[in-house]
Specification:
The protein is mainly α. The protein is 48% helix and 4% strand. It has 3 domains: 2-53, no CATH class; 65-185, no CATH class; 188-244.
Length: 250
């Protein structure tokens, strides 16, 4: 899974990078081949090699195995964890903490038949204390159900055909990861803002405070004029006052 993430990050380079610089092809070809074996799909080596200047939208890789694995349980996927991960790390709108003593999902219906993940979540949402937060998380998590616990594609789970459709909190209908990605990218400034906040947090070595928010908004606004290119976010951060005037602890 680490190779999956490394290959994704290796695609990014500043606009001014030397395109003639050799890529570490031996590592990348082996990693790509290993990943193809794990996910049981053919791989085009040429598709993962090479470097280019990309927009922030290219960071939105909802099918990345490492992310799908850490947002799953060891033995099954988790609609809630995946929905929560997207809300926190992509949209920057974390859901409220769960109430105490949240009941476990019911594996079976009252008549004894095994519930699908969608049916189990629908049953869980009947609890008024749970319905509000799950309205935010569940449609996102269900749209990613075609990925199993380690990110392999599947059409069915436990003999039942997976239905990855749903309606987001704002009324947007989505179906599958492609539909979710399109819905998120319809508001590129939101994703760019969350990305900027995380990059700036890393660059400053501290959490962001209220007085950092004008800088974040300025960086995102400037990046918008440049099609939200990843390099424009990096440039905005390293030229910002908080970064250049940061304090070094003695």
């Amino acid at each position: 899974m680490a190779e999956d993430t490394n290959l994704s990050l290796d695609e990014f380079a500043p606009d001014e990078a030397d395109a003639s610089a050799p890529a570490p092809q031996v590592f990348e070809e082996k990693a790509a081949t290993d990943l193809a074996t794990v996910f049981d799909v053919p791989v085009s080596i040429s598709a993962v090699l090479g470097r280019a200047s990309l927009s922030v939208a290219s960071l939105l890789q909802l099918g990345q195995g490492s992310v799908l694995t850490v947002s799953s349980y060891p033995n099954r996927t988790s609609v809630v964890q995946r929905g929560k991960w997207v809300l926190e790390n992509i949209l920057g709108t974390p859901p409220p903490p769960p109430p105490p003593d949240v009941p476990q999902l019911k594996p079976q219906a009252s008549d004894g038949h095994k519930l699908t993940m969608r049916e189990a979540m629908e049953e869980h949402r009947k609890n008024p204390a749970c319905a509000g937060c799950h309205k935010l998380m569940d449609p996102i998590g269900l749209s990613l159900e075609n990925f199993d616990a380690i990110g392999r594609w599947r059409e069915a789970d436990g003999g039942s055909t997976i239905d990855p459709s749903g309606t987001l909190w704002d009324g947007t209908d989505v179906k599958g990861p492609a539909g979710l990605r399109q819905a998120i990218l319809s508001r590129p400034e939101q994703f760019a803002r969350t990305t900027t906040e995380m990059l700036l947090t890393y660059a400053l070595g501290r959490g962001l405070e209220y007085y950092d928010m004008p800088v974040v908004r300025a960086i995102v606004k400037d990046a918008g004029r440049r099609d939200y290119r990843f390099s424009s976010l990096v440039t905005g951060i390293v030229t910002s006052v908080p970064f250049q005037m940061r304090r070094i602890q003695e």
